[in-house]
Amino acid sequence: MNILTKIALTTASVAFISAPAFASVPAVVHSRLWNHGDELGITTDVSAVKTGRIDFQVINNSRDTVHEIMVRKVKSFDDVLPSNDKDKSVLEDEHDDFGEVASLKPGQTAGLTVNLAPGKYMLIANIPGHDHMTSDLVVTK
């Protein structure tokens, strides 16, 4: 066996052995929870990711407000999620729940890793009075 054949076989073996490791790396979505006065929001660094494992890295950039983030699947981004008439919080039992980071204090960071199929997902803050805190995410094949 000549040296070129050995190099080719070694390279092919390394690529084959390494492929599963690359396949298991989750997509990362950096999510920032914030408020400026009466304005509240969720900002993400991407609006679409590929299906599979998704790692949400969440930071609460608020100075004085506890926030949370929940991942909900929706048919349309125009969907009105059923909510409690009294405090406007989403009725959690009536939705597909794909995980949450709850009670994130100002300045805190947290992570959430979930497996998501293709579709539309809404990131929401389900704390009374935070009903307008949402962000959309598309998961593609």
Task: Give the secondary structure arrangement, pairings included.
Elements lengths: L2 H21 L3 E10 L2 E6 L3 E3 L1 E9 L6 E8 L22 E8 L4 E8 L2 E6 L9 E7 L1
Parallel strand pairs: 1-4, 3-9
Antiparallel strand pairs: 1-2, 4-7, 5-6, 5-8, 8-9
Could you describe the 3D structure shown?
The protein is mainly beta. The chain has one helix at residues 3-23; strands at residues 27-36, 39-44, 48-50, 52-60, 67-74, 97-104, 109-116, 119-124, 134-140. The protein has a 5-stranded mixed beta sheet with strand order 3-9-8-5-6, with no helix packed on it. Strand 1 (27-36) and strand 2 form a beta hairpin. It is globular, with a radius of gyration of 20 Å.
Features:
globular; four-stranded mixed sheet; 141 residues; mainly beta; 1 helix; Immunoglobulin-like; five-stranded mixed sheet; 9 strands
**Major beta sheet, specifics?**
5 strands, mixed
Helix-strand string: HEEEEEEEEE
User: What's the CATH topology label?
Assistant: Immunoglobulin-like
Gross morphology is: globular
At the fourth CATH level, what is the homologous superfamily? Cupredoxins -  blue copper proteins
How many whole angstroms does the radius of gyration measure? Answer: 20 Å
Helix-residue proportion = 10-25%
Distance from first to last alpha carbon? 42 Å
Number of strands: 9
Strand content: over 45%
What top-tier CATH class fits best?
Mainly Beta
**Helix segment count?**
1
| Mean pLDDT rating | 79
